[in-house]
Amino acid sequence: QVQLIESGGGLVQAGGSLRLSCAASGRTFTSYYMGWVRQAPGKERDFVATINWSGGTIYYADSVKGRFTISRDNAENTIYLQMNSLKPEDTAVYYCAAAANLIRVRNSMYEYWGQGTQVTVSS
To answer: Bridge-partner residues for 10, per DSSP?
Structure first.
């Protein structure tokens, strides 16, 4: 059974930092693009960041560039999202997701999803 389990969410003041983790199990994800998608209250899910298996290809949404850093540890089957300089508009449920290729990432066609972790940034 494939599982993506997020952790690290919470409540933080604006300007603070959080680090999200996503532990994958049930299969090997080394060939997958792994990443993060978020959904704010009343809004659709939005792409945040993605990383390929080697870490050599990384993309960020414009809204998080320079503040968020995605990384992965294939040995541990885990990805991370370091979030700095958090803003109230970053408040959302953050989902870990895996896609077979970059085209599927761009079309939000992920094969696997986690349950999500809440990030709340107070002003």
So the answer is: 119
Query: What integer pLDDT is reported at residue 74 of this predicted model?
Result: 87
Instruction: Give the chain's end-to-end CA distance (angstroms, integer).
Output: 40
96 and 113 in contact (C-beta within 8 Å)?
Answer: yes
Q: Give the per-residue pLDDT at 121.
A: 98
Q: Residues of the chain whose pLDDT is less than 70?
A: none
**Tokens 């599982």 correspond to what residue?**
3
Closest C-alpha among 113, 116, 88 to residue 29 = 113
* The predicted structure's pLDDT at residue 28: 82
Residue 50 C-alpha from the chain's centroid: 7
